[in-house]
Amino acid sequence: MLGLSQQQLAQMIGVTYQQAHKYERGLNRISAGRLYEIAQVLSVPISWFFEGMHAVGGPAEMTQRQRMCLELARNFAMIDNEKHQEALSQMARALAQAEGAV
User: pLDDT digits over 42-63, tens only?
Assistant: First the structure.
């Protein structure tokens, strides 16, 4: 959402690109300390990562748009080719800007 690449975020939190990639894909868990560091770098409270969750820990009922965004993020993360990811990201950015201009 901030327009950072995985490489930029990795550098900001002091991990390798590969480690940040594993975090994003859900291959490695993020410790509480690392989550705190990420929140600091992104200038958001830790609670930002849990928005939409019930206080008891269960996920809140997601809207269709939220489900679609989650599916899009999962599919994007499954694209191994960085050039394809960048092309898709640029296309989404262009579509978003075109929507805003309408």
Answer: 888 888 888 777 655 445 566 8
Q: pLDDT tens digits, residue range 81-92?
A: 889 988 998 998
Question: Is the distance from CB of 74 to CB of 42 less than 8 angstroms?
Answer: no
Instruction: Single out the residue of 47, 37, 49 nearest to residue 1, CA to CA.
Output: 49
Long-range CB contact pairs, 22-25, < 8 A, 24+: 24/77, 25/77, 25/78
How far is residue 91's CA from residue 46's CA, in Å, rounded to a whole number?
Answer: 30
Query: What is the extent of the structural domain holding 70?
Result: 62-102
Predicted TM-score (pTM) of the model is 0.48
Shared-domain flag, residues 21 and 68: no
Same domain, 33 and 74: no
